[in-house]
Amino acid sequence: MNVSDDSFLTCQSARVSVIGAGNVGRTLTQRIAEKNLADVVLLDIIEGLPQGIALDLIAAQGIELHNSQIIGTNSYEDTANSDLVVITAGRPRTPGMTRDDLTQINAKIVVNAAQQAIKYSPNAIFLVITNPLDVMTYLTWKATDLPPYQVMGMAGVLDSSRLQTFIAMELGISTANVTAMVLGGHGDLMLPLPRYCTVNGIPITELLDEITINRLVERTRNGGAEIVKLLQTGGAYYAPASSACLMVETILRNQSRLLPTAAYLQGEYGLNDIFLGVPCLLGCSGVKQILEVTLTEIEKQALNTSATSVRKNIQLALESLGMS
Ligand SMILES: NC(=O)C1=CN([C@@H]2O[C@H](COP(=O)(O)OP(=O)(O)OC[C@H]3O[C@@H](n4cnc5c(N)ncnc54)[C@H](O)[C@@H]3O)[C@@H](O)[C@H]2O)C=CC1
Ligand SMILES: O=C([O-])CC(=O)C(=O)O
């Protein structure tokens, strides 16, 4: 091989910037790098923190055998030309708080992060993780002025994965045999859909009684809070990072997976001008398609109630930022 061959020298990896080097951001960085999905720029406001994490992660490269570069930085200039920007910056909740209690504090952080990042990566897809998720995704869309299909939020993959796990635990079978679907906002009013949960194609409604299913649904709704209560100082981050990594992989590899995603609705499910969890085909352009599954009247009502709560919070956030 001639090492001065142009095609060898110009060969480029995808580039993902992760904003926020806390528990979720650093774990996601590890997952992306170790799966060889992209080079990662990890940015945080705290000096030394992203640099230290990056150095620590890169020191394992020879053991984990990946080829990803990991750069820790406090400067948005270093995020330039990212294909994907993931926003994890902001406060996590502590016991007794709802995700909505984080609205005021995280709104400023997320809008600033989005405005800074878009300057250097005008064509990037933005994936939001910071809570309250649906509100922060809406603010990111506003702050970047991107087409709505290029902005999305991660929550449904996590909530569905929790429900999948609880179903598998209840039945004593492999999680690999279970699929689950949770739609709606990422809050106490999220909408787990047992009718669309299956075990190798068999609806769980044929395998579990109503009382058991309701118990698993309730545990899913409280899945985040259950961990916050155990950890005391913040929220979950391993499953959230895995969930976000699945979305990153789907986008970078243009896999057209159907994943519950907080996407911008323009009439789908009878809702407009809101980001909410719905089944989406994801690929290299972002949200390629929103799938409208049939909902019962009760499910529709529950989705509307969840949307109303998200909408109220979006309004509060926009007002507090002087953006309404
Ligand atoms: N959508 C979802 O399903 C999930 C959302 N979350 C949310 O993700 C967020 C992050 O959670 P953790 O990583 O556990 O929190 P963490 O406290 O461990 O990390 C947050 C990081 O953000 C950084 N940060 C704060 N202001 C910043 C700014 N202006 N610019 C850049 N970085 C800044 C902090 O220095 C810190 O390192 C929280 O809002 C949490 O609620 C967490 C898990 C799941
Ligand atoms: O519960 C939290 O605050 C973090 C989160 O969104 C989750 O784990 O679902």
List keywords for this structure.
324 residues; Rossmann fold; L-2-Hydroxyisocaproate Dehydrogenase, Chain A, domain 2; three-stranded antiparallel beta sheet; globular; binds 1,4-dihydronicotinamide adenine dinucleotide; binds oxaloacetate ion
State the helical fraction. Answer: 40-55%
Class by alpha and beta content: alpha/beta
CATH superfamily of the largest domain: Lactate dehydrogenase/glycoside hydrolase, family 4, C-terminal
- Approximately what portion of the residues adopt beta-strand conformation? 15-25%
Gross CATH architecture of the largest domain = Alpha-Beta Complex
* The CATH top-level class label of the largest domain: Alpha Beta
Nearest-integer average pLDDT: 96
Give Rg in angstroms: 20 Å
Largest beta sheet: strand ordering: 3-2-1-4-5-6
The residue ranges in which pLDDT falls below 50 over 5 or more consecutive positions are 4-9
Anisotropy-based shape:
globular
CATH topology of the largest domain: L-2-Hydroxyisocaproate Dehydrogenase, Chain A, domain 2
SSE succession: HEHEHHEEHEHEHEEEEEHHHEEEH
What is the domain tally?
2
For the report, how would you describe the main beta sheet?
6 strands, parallel
The hetero compounds bound to this protein are:
1,4-dihydronicotinamide adenine dinucleotide, oxaloacetate ion
